[in-house]
Amino acid sequence: xxxxxxxxxxxxxxxxxxxxxxxxxxxxxxxxxxxxxxxxxxxxxxxxxxxxxxxxxxxxxxxxxxxxxxxxxxxxxxxxxxxxxxxxxxxxxxxxxxxxxxxxxxxxxxxxxxxxxxxxxxx
Length: 123
Fold this sequence. Notes:
Helix content: 55-70%
Oligomer: single chain
Strand content: under 5%
Structural class: mainly alpha
Number of helices: 5
């Protein structure tokens, strides 16, 4: 799953869209795909296929994904096309400082696993 975290949902979508489009346009030309549309990009986020949004939105989406699929590990690709280094590091910082602790807190509050088991989940 591709991911990008920013202060707001719309800010994250607006910030990452040009880089997502550039990446998928390049790959698409090589593979014969249709050009990536903004509608497809938005649909991938809305369906949960891409993790793009605020820390709160991302935490809620990840928690739902973990619980729905019974996951104990999720891989997120933060290297979305030609995304500048400062944007990558900012997104990763928000994930580590805000998203990950919220996910652990949401999961630990459920009571279907011990807190110890959820503490084993690593970013």
